[in-house]
Amino acid sequence: MKLKNKVAIVTGGTSGIGFAIAKLFSEEGASVVIASDKPENGNNIAKSISSDCLFIQTDIREENQVKNLIFETVKKFGKLDILVNSAGVYSSSQSDITQMPTADFNCIMDINFKGIFLTTKFAIPELLITKGNIINISSALGIVPKKESSIYCASKSAVIMFSKAIALQFPERGLRVNSICPGPIDTPMLRRAFSEKKEYDEHLEMNPMKRAGTPEEVARLALFLVSDGARYITGGVYTIDGGESLG
After folding, report:
1. Per the confidence metrics, is the pTM higher than 0.85?
2. CATH number of the CATH domain containing 95
3. Among 35, 186, 14, 214, which residue's Cα sits nearest to residue 123?
4. For residue 234, which of 83, 91, 109, 167 is within the disulfide window of CB 3.0 to 4.6 Å?
């Protein structure tokens, strides 16, 4: 087991990429805490991962709730080794920036970037003790822009640069920070981005591999980055998009 005796927090861990990461980390021996602002079935989802997996309802935009997430994790398991920031949101109302509601801008930036800032801020003191890891889930759209998704692209690009900057702050103390940039991954969020199945299929037809990736494929990359085999890797940016960002 690659993560035996490790403790991990996975935000957005109740579905999609976050759930796949939480499940794989648990299978590899980690004690896992999944965090989400959606309480529906949160405890049942946690139990489906492992009998000792813990669900903590958390709105990562709220500082006190993030503090509580870190506190309750350490209280339960005694430490924190891994933070995976997987929670994210995509808005379909971005096509015309002149018509985009400011509330949508705030929502995207608060969840996709401010939330990562808060979890990182309060997790770092614990991660420095364990010489731990942070994995930030960005997006291939943080590297290659898409005109219909300007604010989403900006939020995910911010995650990449933030990850690099934090990686530079504590390398001599053993803290490693890397970002993963998925392309089209078959998740509920990707499905919601397309109004019709035909549009979804046409988008995948333009992908060099002619398919969407799976959350499990992203999870395996995350597992490598937090494993001992990646001890010399920090500040990295890893696309997993079937080659779509190659142009």
Report:
1. yes
2. 3.40.50.720
3. 35
4. 167
Answer whether residue 78 is part of any domain.
yes
Whether 243 maps to a domain, the answer reads no
Question: What rounded mean pLDDT belongs to the chain?
Answer: 94
| Res 202: pLDDT | 82
Residue 98 within a domain: yes
pLDDT in tens, 197-230: 778 888 788 899 999 999 999 999 999 999 999 9
Domain count, the chain: 1
Burial of 75 (0-12, 13-18, 19+ CB in 10 A): exposed
What residue numbers bound the domain in which 128 lies? 7-232
152 given a catalytic annotation:
yes
- Give percent above pLDDT 70 in the chain: 98
Choose the catalytic residue: 90, 152, 200, 238: 152
Q: Are strands 7-11 and 31-36 parallel, antiparallel or unpaired?
A: parallel
- Give dist(CA 109, CA 114) in Å, integer: 6
Give, in degrees to the nearest 5, the angle at Cα 137 between 166 and 102: 90
